[in-house]
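Good morning C.,

I know you're traveling, so I'll keep this short. The sequence:
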Amino acid sequence: MSEPIHHSIRGGGYRASVSGTGAALLALDYDDHSEAQGSVTQGSARAYRLVETPAGREPPLGFGGAVLAPWPGGIRDGHFYFDGIEHQLALTDPERGAAVNGLVRHRGWEVTALTDSRIQQTLEVGLHKGWPYQLRLTVAHEVGWDGLTVTHTATNVGGYHSPFGLGVGPYLRAGDSPLDECTLQVAAGTRMPLDRARSLPDAYSQPVTDTEYDFTRPRLLEGVHLDVPFSALDEDLDGNARHRLCGRDGRGVELWTGRGFGWLRATTIDDADTRAFVLAPMTCPPDAFNLGIDLLVLQSGERWSGRWGVRAYDSQE
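The tokens, ready to paste straight into the viewer:
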């Protein structure tokens, strides 16, 4: 298997590394002492890490930061009905009995535009076992003074309307702060319970108020283990919801989600040698093809677009 191609873009004090496999966001650094756009350098003593994919977690082995489409999360038993037609997808997670995270995270994407500060990649999803729908996906990563902005589009280029969902799971970092010393704030009013054994929904969404899942105010992550799809995101006046991971000094990373992304999945990774944190913007919850919750349906020729982004955050701002 050939090594995936990585692309670097920089601007406004930010530098991002984007993979040609899965169009994955692998890393994002910020240099708050930068005086000229694009001056961030890999490994700079001043660079502040906002996104970092742990070893072995990036595509093609893992999913770190990759585009998860045309569905995020798992589809129970790989089975669903759409428009009265039965579909059986390949079980890509046979242990849990599910088709997980779509069809494109291990694929090589075509670079269709590239500048110093922006990269655009495109992929035809193609036809697969249990998937007869023809979609074209595009993702653009762009950095500037306001951080990283990621714009997704999906176009139905086939002759039949298609179900659709999308997610992305970047690994967030608050600089060099250990995760257990960080606080998490998520602007969400509800969460969907998951069956731990299968990581699939086992109940409808529930309010987070006065529960262990209430992160509407910053909470320390020490000893906290999460795998939670959040919804009812609290938007600011600009239509974006803002979520933050911060170290003890109040500095950290802010991930914002636009109106195209109504869900956010927070997951802690707890391996023998890794404790990491994924915050995944999603258009729908896991198993949306069966639940029908926030499932997008693209008519023939229809185009969908959504945005999210990441920037450095300082509580003293």
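Safe travels,
E.
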